[in-house]
Amino acid sequence: MKNVLVFVPLAAAHETDAGLYLVAAGMFAALSAVASGTYVLNDLLDLPHDRRHATKRHRPMAAGKVPLLPMIGIGAALAAGGLLLAFWLSVAAGFWVLLYVAVTPKRASWSCRTGGRYSTWNLACPLTRPRSTH
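^ thats the sequence. predicted structure below, dont judge the formating
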């Protein structure tokens, strides 16, 4: 959903140049690919935690229902492909997407595992921590 934001400046400026919308569509595709790739790679990094979690252990990767090696390739290909597309659009677009890649993976789970002391993602922590069985 957040990827749609790349169209907001054009729409707000009442832009009619179709070429600019084409570039925005490319950026939308780049962000979508990178987001999907980082979600897959983040799930792979969280496997040990997810396998012990009450509900996350039923997800396909945590439950062992999908082979992990292809998932590594899929996640890496999506992230790299999106990043390459962004740099192809422009160097500035590439660096913005690179920044997204740098800050996205592991941010919420890292924050929760450290007690949320170093991040504003504290509100998500109760949703990602396993419930105590005591």
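Residues 107-134 form one domain.
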